[in-house]
Amino acid sequence: MSDDCIFCQIIAGKAQCHPVHETRYTRTFLDAFPSTPGHCLIVTKAHFTDIFDSTPEEIAMVGHVSTLIAHTLREELQCDGVGIYQLNGAAAGQTVFHYHMHVIPRMVGQELHIHSRARGAPAELEAMAARLSKRAYSLRTDD
Ligand code: 5GP
Ligand code: ZN
């Protein structure tokens, strides 16, 4: 736990999020500034700054969950594609320094952005998280 880390605060229940899924090692919640509706972040429960500070085991867990979340997005939102991005270091565009992976629904013809400046509307995030969470827990973890 790093006191000044927003993702640690979310994991500790001290800051709010729109949760989608949880495992022993990970939390998945909606990005507060979604690039597209349904933009998810898979976050390690333990605080690691980035890939260089993490362990292969933790990264493997995030990778494992990414398949479940990709299936969840495609099945629930019928998106044409799913972009998976993981940024390490400010030079790579990382802005929150707690290891995480973006899983972003994509539609044909959309511009490709990882980050958005527009905060998602709370009611829309809440409804989206409820849909995705229900779908994620309905799938097998090896889907
Ligand atoms: P990075 O640039 O580090 O790969 O991505 C960090 C992501 O975290 C960004 O897409 C940003 O929108 C998102 N983010 C920043 N602050 C918060 C927050 O307080 N809650 C949630 N859910 N997402 C956040
Ligand atoms: Zn943290």
From TrEMBL:
InterPro entries: Histidine_triad_HIT (IPR001310), HIT-like (IPR011146), HIT-like_sf (IPR036265). One of its GO terms (biological process) is nucleotide metabolic process. GO terms for molecular function: catalytic activity. The active site is at H100 (tele-amp-histidine intermediate). Residues 6-113 form the HIT domain. A motif (Histidine triad motif) lies at residues 98-102. This is HIT family protein.
